Every structure is written in C-alpha cells, then in structure tokens.
User: Fold this.
Amino acid sequence: QIRAAIKGEPKEPRFRGLQGDIAYQQNQYDAAIDHYNTALKTDPNYYGYYLGKGLVLMQLGRTQAARSDLKKSNQLLPNATATNALGEISLQKGDKETAKEYFKAVMNGSGSLADTAKQQFITLDIEQNPNSYIDVQTNIRDQQIILKVTNSTPLEISKLAITVRIESQGKSTEKTLLLTDLQGYESQFLQTGIRPNASVPIA
Assistant:
C-alpha cells in the first residue's frame, strides 16, 4: 500500500519517511537511510527525517554523523527522543557533564523515556552529589550511635562508603563505614560502634 501511494504521489516525502521508519524497525538500516535521504531532498525542514536518520546512524556506530542529524532534528523541533539520544552519544564519548545536561532536559518530561533519562542522570550525578540522593540520620540505640541511611532513588546502590567525622574534646577523627546492597527507596540502619557519651558524629 505504501509503494502504491508513492507511485500515486512520487513527490510526497512523508511516504518515504514512513518507509524509513519501517525499515528502521526491521533493522534494515541501509535501506532506512536511503528512504530518509530521499525524503529530505523534497522536505529538508522536517525534523522527523533527521531524527530517524540519526537514530539509524547511532545503530551503525556512526556517532559523529548521528549527532549532526539529531542536533538538526532538535533545531527544527525540540524533542525528547533526539535529546536523549544525544545524551547517549555524549556518554559513549565519555563526556559525562554534557550527557547529564541532555538527560536532565528529558527527565523533566513524562513517560518511559523521561523515567529512563532520570535514572541515567542519577547514575551520573550521584557520585558527585551523594547528599542529594542519600539521606543519613543519627539515632541512638543500645547505647551506641546508629545511622539511618535512606536511598531516595529508584536505583540499587551496591556499595556505599559513609565517612563519619567524630569531634570530642577539641579533637577530630574520621571513621569510614561500608554499606552494601541498598535497594531503591530503601532505608537501612548502620551500627557505628560509637557511644553517644564519648563523641558526637557528624555524617
């Protein structure tokens, strides 16, 4: 039916773009690029053709060309799919700060893509800003200071090091405690071995 439509309207780029989308979904990447290029010759100002072509180029590992088409897509019409893909490319290149900017822009939206971008952003940001995602509260139990550690993210944290600074009688020392396997949105209690009448820990 699409081929018949193309024969009836040979200059209609949307049919070529649709063929590109179908070829992309079927992993026929070279054919998809040909269809998108044909569509762009007739309508070079439609963001969707650049978007589709950019995504195909990503699959082929041609990241430089993919970035160019995805940026062009965003220039014509800002969209979450292109922005997220640009974040993925930046991450592949090792440019974590730029990747964070792209993911942050996408995660403020809605839907599954926003959720994925949020997880990507948190994964990159948590190492630099752990206090934004890990809450540590001080409690006393069984005559020792206990830390309540809460993971406010949906991500599992496999290893977490918490440094406690102890100040007593004008002297300051540090103690590092390890916590493993903290699930998303989970709270765990961590024994410090510190008696409350001996010192005051500051997490």
Strands lie at 134-141, 144-151, 157-168, 171-182, 187-191, 200-202. Residues 198-203 have pLDDT under 50 and may be disordered.
